[in-house]
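re the bet — no i am not wrong, look at it urself. input seq straight from the record:
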Amino acid sequence: MKANEKNKEQNRKKENYTRLKLKIFLMMAGILIVSGIVLYLLYQYVVYGNLGNLVVSFLQKKFHLDYYDARNIYQYTFRENWGLLMFLGLMVLFLIISWFVLLRIVIRYFKMIDRGLDLMLLEDHQDVELPQELHSLEKKMNAAKRDMEQRKMEAEMENVRKNDLITYLAHDLKTPLSSVIGYLSLLHEAPDMPPEQKAKYVGIALEKAERLEDLINEFFEITRFNLQTLILNKRKINLSYMLQQMADEFYPILEAQGKEAVVESEEGIFIYADADKIARVFNNILKNAIAYSERNSTIQVKVTDSEEKTWIQFINHGDPIPEHKLNVIFEKFYRLDNSRSSATGGAGLGLAIAKEIVTAHEGEILVTSSVEQTVFTVILPK
């Protein structure tokens, strides 16, 4: 289907450019015919008119020649070389008429293209309009204009989301910092505090300090995402072992919420990828699954392998993602729920970074969501 559309588009381009070439060719032929007619009329005037007598009379008066000498000069100079003079005259006439007619039309095309380029840079929704012969170019310019407008709008939206998130994070920094300072002040002011109470206050201060560290890391994440260049260092990776190791690392967080992560994979499945970056993909998706799954639920990590591709699915049970948000969930600085508490809300970069890394590996990352479950699928080529 796509091949047919591509062939049709190429045929339209050829037809447009053929029409343009034909138009220019006909104009050149017309100019040549007009030049020939002018020269033919001039030739008739020379042969049957008084031009010869005028030239002989001019030579007699100007150079003081007798009639026979002047006529011989005219005869050998003009009459004997009339074919060459006609050819030169035809070329001169052709160039003169082309300068005033053909080049003017060609320049008009360039001016139209120049105006079209100006319209592309204007911040309005006016389409570029060119002659029918330049329809394919008009189509490309309008497509480029719409693409530029779309990119600008996305950049503006991204910047707004980024600024909002920085504001949220800056505000969220105050709460754990105030708690840390408050509980440390109590410990400092009451050195004889009972051990049980002291342990409680130290635990709360440590928890808030860890949250403060997470928020600071979010700030660094925002900066790194904009500045880093994605360079892959691929090698052979034991996928089953990596996923199981990752599930074990999340055990303390899962245990605190009554959850568990179960890896369902055959032994000895290998992929060829950048270990650090692909681990970051799985880490971000698993972290997202933990944050949005129900308490006391199981997060499944399923691996399906074939000769060409490997599928890794992360399945969690929780509130479904609205359909209109499935298309934007991988955008930078997008948080699924802006009203989430500061204890779990992130900068909205995890899934965007995951998609960028997977795309760099020439793979795909997909998401589906229903009342029963939400599934993130990473597809990597072998």
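see?? Residues 338-345 have pLDDT under 50 and may be disordered. told u. also The longest strand covers residues 298-305. so pay up
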